[in-house]
Amino acid sequence: QVQLVESGGGLVQAGGSLRLSCAASGSIFSTDAMGWYRQAPGKQRELVATITSGGRTNYADSVKGRFTISRDNAKNTVDLQMSSLKYEDTAVYYCNVRRIGTWLLNYWGQGTQVTVSS
Question: What confidence tens digit (pLDDT) does each residue in 100-118 have?
């Protein structure tokens, strides 16, 4: 079992920055990938950024150059540094842990609200 807790969301003006953090606990595997997804009102959840256990990153085109994902494998945390925020970034942001083994497993946090004023 994996538990994920996000923090760091809030209200910010366009052009500002926020840093989201996710703390993972439970049965975390060293090979697990971690990432951030977001869901805006009335829209489906979409990938924001992912990072493998080895540090390889992947970003949605809409956030490249503005967001940076990082992880601390020793602490089982993953952060998302969000800069140059836009109104379009407004969403609930969810932490994700993905495990590929015999089965593909996805674990999700409860989400943290990010609201960017236009």
Answer: 887 889 999 999 999 999 8
